Design the sequence.
């Protein structure tokens, strides 16, 4: 799916990768990154987020480690896929601004791993019938019970409910269904929380979401 999108949007990257491989300049199983495209996309995302009052987060456990070693703050962990129990301590050591959880069990693991003296902000991933998910990315709290979920997360020791989330958010929210209504409910409860997302931080089977254009 993603290779097809790259071929359409950035064929020069694919051609460069093929040429470098044939020339023996890169080994097998390498990552080839178009840094110019990454910088341009980051600028567009940051600008769009600023226009709408949103914080933009980067999500990837391996990439998060590299980001942390580079001296940057970590906005979010656990968004695309949940942090494994065995990796919870390593994730907590990065001191993320917020931690996405799909269940009470994962929330408890995040809080247990959080460093002493820190209150971990939790993002509750939600789902509702009719939401669109990519295969393998399903899951989350049921949207109709979000008010109860908010109270449970807030009740955890050294934890604070921050906001709800989903992925892919634009597909799910644009449907205007239960997940969209849950956002309205959670937004009102978030006003009681002291947590504020960092500005510009680097933060059941359902029918699959369509392939990106």
Sequence:
């Amino acid at each position: 799916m993603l290779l097809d999108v790259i071929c359409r949007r950035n064929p020069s990257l694919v051609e460069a990768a093929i040429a470098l491989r044939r020339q023996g300049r890169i080994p097998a199983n390498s990552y080839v990154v178009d840094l110019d495209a990454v910088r341009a996309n980051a600028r567009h995302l940051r600008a769009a987020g600023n226009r709408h009052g949103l914080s933009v987060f980067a999500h990837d456990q391996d990439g998060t480690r590299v980001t942390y070693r580079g001296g940057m703050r970590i906005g979010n962990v656990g968004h695309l896929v949940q942090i494994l129990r065995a990796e919870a301590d390593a994730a907590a050591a990065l001191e993320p601004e917020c931690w996405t959880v799909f269940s009470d069990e994962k929330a408890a693991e995040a809080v247990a791993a959080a460093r002493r003296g820190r209150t971990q902000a939790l993002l509750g991933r939600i789902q509702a019938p009719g939401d669109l998910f990519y295969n393998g990315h399903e899951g989350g709290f049921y949207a109709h019970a979000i008010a109860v979920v908010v109270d449970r997360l807030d009740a955890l020791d050294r934890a604070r409910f921050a906001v709800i989330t989903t992925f892919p958010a634009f597909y799910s929210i644009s449907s205007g269904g239960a997940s969209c209504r849950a956002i309205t409910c959670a937004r009102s409860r978030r006003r009681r929380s002291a947590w504020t997302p960092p500005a510009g931080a680097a933060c059941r089977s359902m029918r699959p979401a369509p392939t990106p254009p």
The longest strand covers residues 120-127. Strands lie at 76-77, 98-101, 120-127, 141-142, 159-165.
